[in-house]
Fold these 3 entries.
Entry 1:
Amino acid sequence: MDNKVRVGVVGLRRGRDLLHNMLFMPEVSVSVICDKDKERLKSCEEWLKYEKRMDGFVCLDNFEDVLNTDIDAVVIATEVSAHVPMSIQALEAGKHVLSEVPAINTLEEAKNLYKAVKKTNLKYMLGENCCFWAFVNTWKEIYESGRLGDVWYAEAEYLHNVVELMKDKDGNPTWRASYDAIKYLTHDLGPLLYILDDRCVSVSGFAPDINPIPEASTGTPNEIAIFKTEKGALIKIFVSFGLQREPARHNFCMYGSKGTLETTRSGEYATLAYFKDIPHTQDLIKIPVGISYPGTSERIIGGHGGADYFMLKSFIKSIIEDTEPPINVDLAIRMSIPGIYAHMSVLNGSKPMEIPNFDEEG
């Protein structure tokens, strides 16, 4: 491969943020930008040319045209319904893929995506940026050291009032207006499964009878899921797209036989910990480890505390070094399928649902 990985970015709302991070990577050449919204495409083009002093890239409003270019990889940051179809098209066209979350929307999509990745033998990575937060990797090290013992319960919350994102500039409903919240759980379940190296085997899902936001026309904006894992732990996930709270926040906790880890619930992120092996401890210990890494440049820190930057770096590294991406298709599906079964449980009166092992069944 050449010195630079040639990348195309498709979907320039979220994709523009990812594009910004890639401008700080000397190993990346942003060769193509694409959006079907020509106004948004023009805005991004002018931003790159006049603010970032960048040239040599192609602007396209059709995804098929992107696949006909000589790029090495495509970043898919479109509406969720297009993630899998575009990922498969790109793989079949010989392009490596980084897909925004969620990885899949249906079980059929999971099967088709899995087959496409295995057939083409190209790099596929889910852009689950929350797995790249500083505290997530610190917690993983602590867990793997044995300091927490056996983790028997964990939970996470995604609290984000997205009412303003449920309509486009013309007042038409966006995908968020009809999306079921628990299917968007990878930001929260993903890091926990990543830390614990575990998978969900069963779930019961719940949704309130009260819908606080009429803008959610057909979707379920607030859902809770309680999972049982293969290692015997319980995990509770709450995803809310319709609540009266600012700012948006992710909260995490893990309880083990030898200790506890929690994130602070307001203000600057930090870790609160308790360890059984520290005698006479009367309160949680505050550890200054949050979402950002020390020394992360202010230029890129806006990308979810630097997580976007490190996520993209790991994807590009897997292409250059021909290694497996950290969140490959197996892990992407393992993080995503539980949300589909959780919502199926909601629709069936919160009936418990078994979650198959997709790694074995394929």
Entry 2:
Amino acid sequence: MVENVHPADVSGLKIELDQALSTLDLALLEAGRSVAVVRNHMAQVVELAERSREMEAAMSRAREQLAVSFEDGAAVPPLRAVPAIGPVEAIDAPVMEPDAQLDEDSGEADPVEAEDPKPEETYPIQAPDPSAKTSRCLRLAVSSKSGNLDLKEVDSSVNENPSVIDVALLDYDGRQATLKLWINDAADPDGVRDALLTSLRNHLGKKDIELSIELEEDSSA
């Protein structure tokens, strides 16, 4: 007895069958992709396996060659004998004479002879010039309150004045000096005196010295 099938049921079954077929197609597609990936990896694995076998074969051949070399005992070249070296004779260096001078091309400068220190000048001022015709003279007395008196500074101060013709040192004991100054007849003695006092104070210091300048006639004129 055939049961009555409703058309709506047939339509629903058809839809379910179509969906099942679509799902199966998708599954087969994914399976095909997976198989392709596996095949790709399999090809790489096979290639690696072949390279591994080649490396193993090369290593085996190398071991065999090394084993044969050790068994045969490769000949080692003998060491060459080196003759012994005798003692080196000492060479006498040339001895330079004490008075021998160095060659100019040696690059060494000749030793500089040390000069003996010169004694301190105790009479630096010149005596009066006999050719200078003048009858006017100044007597200069200068003394230092602290330390020795520097005659060079005194001489420099005196020579700065153009009216002073000549200078003579009469007395000097280290701290005190007496000088005789010949001045030009046309010069003013007072002006020369004031100028000398100013110059001496500037050179020697105002507080450390005592000065006196007096006018006198030259008896030898």
Entry 3:
Amino acid sequence: MMTFPRQPESIQSHLKISPEVQRLLELGNDSLDGEMVEAILDQAVRFSSEILTPFDAVSDKVGASFEGGRVTLAPGHDAAWLMFREAGWLGLEMDPDFGGQGLAKPLAAGVTEIMERGSVAFGMLAGSIRGASRLLALHAPETTKEEWLPRLLSGEWGATICISEPDAGSDVGRIRTRAVARGASWEITGEKIWISYGDNPLVTRNGHLVLARIEGALPGTRGLSLFLVPSGSAPREENGVTCRRIEEKMGLHGSPTCSIGFEKSLGTLIGQEGRGLPTLFAMITGMRLQVGAQGLGLASAMLETAVGYAAERKQGGPADKPPVPINQHADVRLMLLNMATNVETFRGVVTAAASFAELAEKEDSEEARARAAALVRFLLPVVKNGGAELAWNVGSLALLVLGGAGYTQEWPVERWLRDCRVLAVFEGTTGMQGQDLTLRRMLADDEGLKHFCALFESELSSGQAPAPPWAEEALQLMREASRWVRESSRTQCELEAAATIFLRFTTIVLQTWSAARLVNSGSEQLAAIGAAWGQDVIHDARALLERAMVSAGRLIALAKD
């Protein structure tokens, strides 16, 4: 029977076999040294399993509450946060000059995956702080950096991302929050919703990154600017920022999702006027990588739970003999194999995306940095949405493996399923990721796609053994999809109709690329998993490509009717 690697060993293996990680080592990134990687991942596993996992069960049951205009968190949240801060987990890949650890992004992604497995609700605050820190490091005035970055990365202060409003969710251009100049500062007035940890007792000050429209600015997204608006825990430090309510949610009960009001709140302009959305994308890149790691962490937890349960639970077998473990039944074995191949191949995609993000900053030539950045833009929609779908699909199968037990609160699978579904919503919905991939990365800016196809082809032709036929077909299908999208007769309506299906199709192709790497990894265990993936899903890729084309045609026909 095929065996599956556990999460930390798998992360180490992917870092070891990744050509991009090898390139980072050549460029002198010492944090990717094998012994250091093992030590850091071991510490992450210990913290996640000993602190976050038991905390998550409590926080799900108790949840956050809102009374008297303030948020209260579950018992133990403050202690867990203090330990997290003191251990230095917040500043994983940030500059040591500001209190960060300076780890390479692929290793930081592995640590994030392990931590999110322990508690996604807990990790929501850390993710916002890291994202805000990256943005401020790139775009804030020097005085703002010096004041905020050390305190953010120590966990003393927190940060939020304030984009959505009651009438402006994905339609960001309709934002009504306004900004009025007051000397060197700006007065911000408006309401923002879906703000994770918008109010909480874990930090003494919050920095709200707020998208707002300066009076007289252009309509739509071009008129938006970005502001850093502070609020403190003491009444005299509130700065006109109030929490109006928190949401009652399907999952992530331990993470307060706030509606925040701003009433003439003083803030600092970050970046240029009218460039709020492009400035914010410095943060979005890291946040979407985080969603991929979140989904991967939850999927790993659900896979290992199902594997353990299937080895212990005994049912069936010959009537004249003792019952056998359910992992001996073909249907259960197929579900476990499906889960494991999805997890392992997607881990390769996340490792590659994080590595390219690092190379986009660290490569030694402008051309190489531009190539890596283009690959990141191409991979990001798949990483973000793929992590969301991975967790949901693997969790659904894990529940089936556990049967009735999986549907109860005695086992954590039902909690993880509730927690993971929002991954397909925040940081850009599935439909938005599909349109980003299809309309931008396959059409308007297809440099990343071209680089990916060239890389895939090069790897298939340079291996010591002949390339697997399924890998060659995956590359052929990707090029076929690209040609279809770029045909001059395609309408916007056709492309939008096919976008989400193209997103799922491209996810399969990227996981197949990852599977081909596993086949050539030198590890019998990973090679077997890679081969099992490739042989199983290539038919799915072909079917999805055909379905995308058919769906677009059907929508056009309906529109004409």
